[in-house]
Amino acid sequence: MTARAADRARYDRATAHLDAPLAIVDLDAFDANADDLVRRAAGKPVRVASKSVRCRALLERVLSRDGFQGIMSFTLAESLWLARSGFEDVLLAYPSADRSGFAELAADPKLAAAVTVMVDDVAHLDLIDAARDGGREEVRVCLELDTSLRLLGGRVRVGARRSPLHSPAQLAELARAVARRPGFRLVGIMAYEGHVAGVGDAVAGRPLRSRAVRLMQAAARRELAERRAAVVRAVRAVAPDLEFVNGGGTGSVQHTAAEDAVTEIAAGSGLYVPRLFDNYTSFTGRPAALFAQPVVRRPGVGVVTVLGGGYPASGAAGPDRLPVPYLPEGLKYDPQEGPGEVQTPLLGSPADDLLIGDKVWFRHAKAGELCERFDTLHLIEGDAVTATVPTYRGEGLTFL
C-alpha cells in the first residue's frame, strides 16, 4: 500500500460516521509542517498568516508551539476580532479603508496595543485621522516595501503590484511623515516577496520554465536582500525603536531568514500545504487540509460523479486554480466539464471501485480559501476524528 493509499484508508475510517461534503485537517501533517517552517526559519520567529488558516482553533494550536509568534491578518475587522479574542500581536498585512474599524481601534487601548496597521501612503494616515471619531489611542503603523524586481530601467517588472514604496528614500520619507504625525507610532516594516515565496520553481513537465523561474528568483533574492537592508537602515535612522522587519512566505522561509535585516518570517500556507505548493525545490510539505465529496452517480465504466466540488481559488484563472482529485489516486476531471457547482464527473479506472456514498478526497489550490466553503474542520489524529472546530465561516464571519 502506498503512503497516499494508507492516508485514504485512515481518512475513510476516521470519517466513516460523517456524511460528505466535509473538510479535514490531518494534525500529524499539520504539526510536521509547522516543525518544518520553524526549522527553515533558523531561529527567527514565524508570524502566522491567518488568511491561510482561517480557523481560530488552529491559529491557537500553532501559536502555542515554539518558534511561532504573532498573526498576520488580512482585514481590519478580522484584526479587531482576533485582538478581542485574546491574540495580543496582530499585524494587518494590507491597507484598510474601514472607517468604523479605525474608530473602534483608536478608542480602545487594548485593541490599539494589539493591532498594527499597514500604510504605504500619507492618504492612509489622513483616512485614519478622519475616522477617529474622538478616539485618541496611538495607532501602531507598519510600512510596506514593494519587493518587485525591476529590470531594464523599470520597463520590466516581476512581482505583485502592492506598495508604491520601492526605494529606501521613499520609505524614509513616509517614516518621517509618520514620526511628525501625532497619534501614530511607526513600529515595523513588511516586505512580501510573492514572486519568490509564492511561485513554484519545479513545475512538473516544464523543465525550461522551471529553470527560468529559478534564475529569476535567484536574481530577485539578491536584489531584494541588498535593497531591504538599505531600507531598514534608512527607516531606523528615523525610527530607531523599530520593533520588527517582516519578510518572506512559505516558499522563501530559509532564504528570507538568512537576511540580517529581517527579524521575523511570515508563513501560513505551509501549514496546510495546498496543491500550489507542490512545485518547490526548497521544501516538501505534507498535505494537511483536504475536503471530501460523496459519489452520487456512476454514469458508466470508468466514470463517477461526485456532488459539488467547484471551488476555484483566487488569482489569474487557469487550471492551477482548481482543486485536484487526490484520493483515490488516478482520478481526473472530464475536460468538457471540469469541477462543477453542483456535480463533478471524474474519470479513471479507480472510478470502477467506488460505490454510491463513497468519498473522493480533494486538495484545494490555495490554503485558507477552503475554509470559505466549510463551516467546520474535522481534526484527525491517526485514524480518528479527535475534534471538530469552526472555521471563520462557522463562527459567522466572512471578512472578505
Explain the overall architecture.
The protein is an alpha/beta fold and 400 residues long. 32% of the residues lie in helices and 24% in strands. The chain has helices at residues 3-14, 27-41, 56-63, 76-84, 99-107, 109-114, 122-131, 168-180, 194-197, 207-238, 253-257, 269-272; strands spanning 22-26, 46-49, 68-73, 90-92, 115-119, 139-144, 149-151, 156-158, 184-191, 244-247, 264-267, 289-300, 303-307, 324-327, 332-333, 343-347, 359-363, 376-381, 384-390. The strands form three sheets. Strands 1, 12, 13, 14, 15, 16, 17, 18 and 19 form a nine-stranded mixed beta sheet that branches. An eight-stranded parallel beta barrel has the order 2-3-4-5-6-9-10-11, surrounded by five helices. Helix 3 links the parallel strand 2 and strand 3. It is globular. The model has no long low-confidence stretch (mean pLDDT 94).
As a whole number of angstroms, the C-alpha radius of gyration is 22 Å
Question: What share of residues is helical?
Answer: 25-40%
**Spatial gap, N to C terminus:** 42 Å
Work out the number of β strands.
Answer: 19
User: What's the story with the biggest beta sheet?
Assistant: 9 strands, mixed
Number of helices: 12
